[in-house]
Amino acid sequence: MAGLRLGGSSMFNYIQRLLGERGLAPHGFCLLWDPALIWTHVVADALIGVAYFSIPIVIAYFLTRRRDVAFGWVVWMFAAFIMACGTTHFLSIWTLWHPDYGIEALVKAVTAAVSVVTAIALWPLLPRAIALPSPAQLQRANTDLSLRVAERDAALAALRRETAERERAEDMLRQSQKMEAVGQLTGGIAHDFNNLLTIVLANLDRVRRLTEGDARLERPLANALIGTERAAQLTGQLLAFARRQPLQPEERDLNEVVTAVAGLVGATLPDTVRVELDLAPGLWPVRIDANQTENALLNLIVNARDAMPDGGVVTIRSRNVTDAAGDHAVVEVADTGAGMTPDTLARVFEPFFTTKSVGEGTGLGLSQVYGFVTQSGGTIAIDSAPGNGTTVRIVLPRATSLL
Q1: Residue 200 belongs to a domain
Q2: Last residue of a domain, one of 99, 132, 165
Q3: Rounded CA separation 199/160 (Å)
């Protein structure tokens, strides 16, 4: 304890002597109070001191805004060292007129301590500081990262496209399987029902001949025959959808069939509906049943007319198309009507599905067209959206002449 008191007393005496009046001359006396020397020292030390004081302020502002800077605590120590250096320069101005060399010595001692600690802290950090990436390396890393991000985005976009294509393919497969199942069921029922109708028609005709001249049975029998014939027509439509109707295919020019149908329906359509033809010259011939093709086109035109209650344009186009499956002739029937929702579009080929009011349609028109086109070796597709009209596209394989 006595040693501690002695040491503390010695330190106190040392500081007291350092700060005490000792009759020393100010530094200006050593310069012989030469104004040129005095003011050169004043101006130079003042500028250096102001610069030294401004640098820590900039460093402090930078560190407070960028808290992610590596080795920030060393930078704070460096700022303190610069501040202490600036203080020594201001004291150099003070001691030109006031011999307070003790205070100047204490400030220099503090500056020395801070500088030594800063230097000791800097040397171990030198390898780590050298290992930090340069701006050029960071730029290269950012460029590489941007390329990788672009590649990832491109891969994700490709994956989304592939997923969408797969989903479309799966939807088409499910739709095809559904239509195949419905077609088989419909065809089986229609075939058996058609056989029954044949028996009914034959017996009704026999009864009509046996009761000829009987006024009481004449009208009921006529009504029964009419109903049976309508049922037979309905059965024929179902067989067409099921691809079981008898066809008489022959090599024909679709443009000729389209032109004939357009001339046939032109006079029956209302004045507000106009039919326009856009037929490609040199359309490849196809093997089709001409009568069934005309019926299919009539069905499509009537549907287009019904989709435009306020009038519009029905455009029939044709063109040649070559794809991976071979050469095809394409016929499109497009209208400017209200279009269809996706839910409706997914069911348009189903038998007995219709959006028309009760009594305005059987729902077998498009089903019959679907069955006929498929039975003829072609495909049919519909593009439609609400407010954008509807386009029905029939694709038939090019007829190849046998040599």
Answers
A1: no
A2: 132
A3: 58
